[in-house]
Amino acid sequence: MSFEPVPRPIRDRIDQELDTAYRKGMKIARVMVDWADLEPRPGKYDLDDLREALEENYEKGLYTLVTISVLDSEGMVAPGFLMDGEDSGRLRDGKRFNDKEIVQRFSALLERMVPLMVSRRVFAVALSNEPQVYLESHPAELADFVAFVRAGRDTVHAIDPRLAVTVVNVGRITDTPLKDNPMIADLVAVSDVAAFNYAPFTNRLEELAIDDPKRIPQDFRSLAAAADGRRILIQEMHCPSGHRSGKSAMHTSVTIQTECLRTSLDAMMQMPQFRVMYFASMLDWSPALVSMFADPLRAESEVPRLYVDQFSEWYETMGLVWYPDGTPKPAWNTFLEGLDKLYR
Q: Angle at the Cα of 28 (from 78 to 103), degrees rounded to 5?
């Protein structure tokens, strides 16, 4: 629903919209957690929040994707006791991801989690979210991280081979084919299903602008090529709406957002390899949450002002429901119409 606590008046309205989606056949949910939160002290696990979220989804009859981040788009989120005290981007004592201690600790966590997840209708578990963001600045660690993921998958399958294991990859389409990116190809190779975060951005990496939604079917074919025959899930589909008024820094609008969602759903129905798609967030981010991420960018003199404006607009308008009043955007009705097509 959102990446932050939702005020009660908005929550009540969103719950009504979600009830409509459930009646129309929506069957999936998503839970995202960090390893650091699951194991706050060595060998001491805190699964209460995860258990509560899975139980809520289970009672609604939903199937859940769980993402356990070790590497995330923001960096490394391993437990603090494993981290270098002076460098938040390093493991302590020069350890690497495939070191015995790191692998064994993560395997022990998975041994606690897998029975819970299987009992609560979890259909897949991702062992990091967009690790390419970290690995691009630490390319020598790719092989170690691939070995770490492989060991995690082996642990999961030893308990229940039916539970699919994956890693959520950056699915931004540029002039270089995704299938030729070793940081994606190597992680897809140790995944049961291929998972991506995707947005129909332009090919220019220096900007965050939405391109013509007509490109989406071709982009999906590029994702399919990178998946190397595996089934595909989209963990986050991004297509912000832009603000209610004023010029959009991202060259988007509520009309473009609606067309993005309609085109994506139509493409999925034509490509059976795509099995699951989640929109990035049902609710826009609050201005306070956006500021937490945008303000540090504004303070960096080398970051172009336009890029920061695009970043802010992206997250301020990323949802299918407006913040702060909970009013559905036109794309929400398109989503409900898509459910009618899928489950009629």
A: 25
Instruction: Please state, in angstroms and rounded to a whole number, the distance separating the CA atoms of residues 278 and 287.
Output: 23
Token representation of residue 110: 């998975």
Instruction: Convert the pLDDT of each residue in 199-248 to its tens digit.
Output: 999 988 888 999 999 999 999 999 999 999 999 999 999 999 999 999 99
CB proximity list for 277: less than 8 A, separation 6 or greater: 233, 234, 237, 264, 265, 268
117, 63 contact by CB (below 8 A): no
Q: Give the Cα separation of 30 and 40 in Å (integer).
A: 22
Q: CA 239 to CA 219: how far, in whole Å?
A: 14
C-alpha 53/C-alpha 276 separation (Å) is 19
Sign of the CA dihedral running 246, 251, 252, 255: positive
* DSSP-derived secondary structure letter, 84: E
CB count in 10 Å sphere of residue 302? 4
How high is the pLDDT of residue 1?
67
CA dist list (Å): 88 to 6, 34, 42: 30, 15, 18
Pairwise CA distance, residues 121 & 23, whole Å: 19
| Segments making up each domain of the chain, as ranges | 26-284
Can you read off the two tokens belonging to residue 197?
């975060």
Higher pLDDT, 8 or 216: 216
Its CATH architecture, for the domain 26-284, is Alpha-Beta Barrel (3.20)
